[in-house]
Design goal:
The chain has three domains: about 45-100, Alpha-Beta Plaits (2-Layer Sandwich), CATH 3.30.70; about 105-440 and about 470-485, Peptidase S8/S53 domain (Rossmann fold), CATH 3.40.50; about 490-560, Sandwich (Immunoglobulin-like). The chain is globular. It has helices spanning about 55-60, 80-90, 130, 190-200, 230-240, 260-275, 390-405, 415-425, and strands at about 5-10, 15-20, 20, 45-50, 65-70, 75-80, 95-100, 105, 115, 155-160, 175, 215-220, 250, 255, 280, 300-305, 310-315, 325, 330, 365-370, 375-380, 380-385, 440-445, 455, 495-500, 505-510, 515-520, 530, 535, 545, 555-560. It is built from eight helices and 31 strands.
Length: about 575
């Protein structure tokens, strides 16, 4: 039995113990430090009616709030005993009072984290996940080491970001902390820095490159060494809602169970989306349904991924030449039998949302993305390889940032759903993954005690052997792989034109990664010739072309080609 039990089924908080050795990566939701003998009253989350004054309520009831929420949701979080909570619950301004649950990171120990010193990476590497998504061949992201940067603002709700990491473009004025890891959003742990590199590590000559290189990263620290709760998460969401005029994407590689404040968490994220912010979230690593009992809106839903307004992301394995040998507890550099498979730990969805704002073959999960042995940035200006849906979500968030760089941001919920649907529609169905949708060997779940590998289908909801402790589930929901698509790159659009004594001028839209060549011809006959008016590299900004020798009957067009 011991030979098969390569994962010891014991946890210290959520620090995974692997073959008797603690993994180098420690999950964020670690055991809290001991408290004084006299415990303070528990923090309660108070959800107020729209228009109610939280400051007035605080004064009247003599509360000492940890947070007052004003943007994503109207409410507050404050310590209070049961008697105070009971009195407050009868106030007409109060919608609900709920418990302050735990928030967890979504990185798992599929083998210990492999820390890679910066000195070990001689030239910039393109990680396996980036390769599997086809990004090096996508015109917008034809990586060349020239440090082109996308003009998009992405918030990272996490443990912070190493603010001075040389491979990241952190927006310092917008970075902040609501937990106890730092006061300025600096990463105390490494998890947030790793997530950030997947989203937007610079396209330079060091380290790695991200999905959307150089996006401005807002560090919003909401998990700390001893603070990792829903009240703090809501404070971060509230901050992003306050700055939704700048932030267009937020990555949440964190999960929490709804508990008795589902409506409050739902309202906060729903209001954030209504401001045009695309929320991308990790599906979680419990090898279960994000809907829990298959009924949406209950205390067992995995949030925020389980909300219909949120883009939920599961994990897949992009590695052709590395896999985790469970029996011997080592990473093996050899042909990977699990390539293009859904890992055992990734959550899934059996039930579609109702209402369903975005339609995906994955049901309540929009897409899958690389989430096994992912190389990205790490604290100390280093790099690391980690696994989990924590790593999958930022791949999708970076893809959303690319879409926004090409098409512009959303300004309301309908715009957010349009972006999500475009990403889903452009993604690769599982039947097109290698090797053509046939069954393949992959890991059995870690607590079942069965063999290292078990015959299973690619669909994460099905275990063909029925041996795993999570049982056999048969349905056809199978999330597609998030990949870029030319279908969501817009054609150049002429937005203005003018004719004057100086000639004819017209302005048109551009997209990074393409070369635009305005041309004219004096005839549309069978043998007409087009003459260039110059060319320009797309930047995402408007470009104006002019023709000083304009004549009546002249025709114009704009030719777009991928940049060499």
């Amino acid at each position: 039995m011991a030979a098969y039990n390569s994962w010891v089924p014991a946890r210290i908080g959520t620090v995974y113990v692997i073959s008797g050795a603690v993994a180098l990566f420690l999950a964020v939701s670690i055991t809290r430090a001991s408290v004084a003998a006299t415990n303070p009253p528990p923090t309660k989350i108070v959800h107020l009616r729209p228009g109610a004054d939280p400051d007035g309520l605080v004064h009247e009831f003599g509360l000492t709030p940890k947070f007052i929420y004003r943007y994503a949701v109207n409410g507050l979080a404050a310590p209070m005993d049961s008697a105070a909570a009971e009195r407050l619950s009868h106030d007409a301004r109060v919608l609900s009072i709920g418990d302050n649950g735990e928030v967890r990171s979504d990185c798992v120990g599929v083998g210990p984290a492999l820390i890679v010193p910066a000195s070990a990476i001689v030239t910039q590497q393109i990680p396996a996940g980036i390769m599997r998504m086809g990004l090096p061949n996508f015109p917008m992201t034809r990586y060349n080491g020239q440090d082109h940067r996308f003009n998009v603002d992405v918030a990272v709700l996490d443990s912070g970001i190493q603010l001075d990491h040389p491979d990241l473009n952190v927006y310092l004025p917008g970075s902040t902390s609501f937990a106890d890891g730092s006061t300025n959003g600096s990463d105390w742990h490494g998890h947030g820095t790793h997530v950030s590199g997947i989203i937007g590590a610079l396209d330079n000559d060091i380290g790695v490159v991200g999905v959307a290189p150089g996006v401005r990263l807002w560090s919003v620290e909401v998990v700390g060494p001893t603070v990792n709760d829903q009240a703090t998460l809501l404070a971060g969401v509230d901050y992003i809602a306050q700055h939704a005029d700048r932030i267009s994407v937020v990555n949440v590689s964190l999960t929490t169970y709804a508990g008795n404040i589902y409506d409050t968490i739902h309202a906060a994220f729903s209001n954030l989306v209504s401001r045009g912010v695309v929320v991308v979230a990790a599906a979680g690593n419990n090898a279960g349904d994000i809907c829990g009992d298959t009924i949406w809106g209950n205390s067992d839903d995995v949030l925020p991924a389980g909300l219909p307004e949120v883009m939920a992301v599961s994990a897949m394995d992009p590695n052709t030449d590395w896999f985790w040998d469970c029996t011997n507890s080592v990473w093996v550099n050899a042909n990977n039998p699990a390539f293009d498979q859904i890992p055992f730990f990734s959550n899934y969805s059996e039930t579609r949302h109702n209402p369903e704002f975005v339609h995906s073959q994955g049901g309540g999960i929009d897409v899958a993305a690389p989430g096994v042995f992912v190389l990205s940035t790490w604290n100390g200006t280093n790099y690391a390889k980690l696994s989990g849906t924590s790593m999958a979500s930022p791949h999708a968030a970076g893809l959303v940032a690319l879409y926004i760089a090409a098409n512009g941001r959303a300004t309301n919920a309908a715009g957010v759903y349009k972006i999500r649907q475009a990403i889903v529609d452009g993604s690769q169905p599982q039947l097109q993954w290698f090797p053509g949708g046939q069954p393949a060997y992959y890991y059995v779940d870690s607590y079942s005690g069965y063999d290292t590998f078990v015959l299973s289908t690619r669909d994460p909801d099905v275990y063909a052997s029925c041996a795993g402790s999570f049982g056999c589930i048969t349905n056809d929901l199978a999330e597609p792989l998030a990949v870029p698509s030319e279908s969501w790159v817009p054609a150049p659009t002429i937005v203005s034109q003018s004719l004057s004594s100086n000639g004819f001028a017209f302005s048109f839209t551009t997209v990074p990664g393409y070369v635009y060549t305005p041309q004219f011809t004096d005839t549309l006959g069978a043998s007409h010739q087009w003459t260039d008016l110059g060319s320009t590299n797309g930047t995402g900004d408007l470009v104006t072309a002019s023709d000083s020798a304009v004549s009546s009957g002249r025709y114009y067009r704009i030719r777009r080609q991928p940049r060499p």
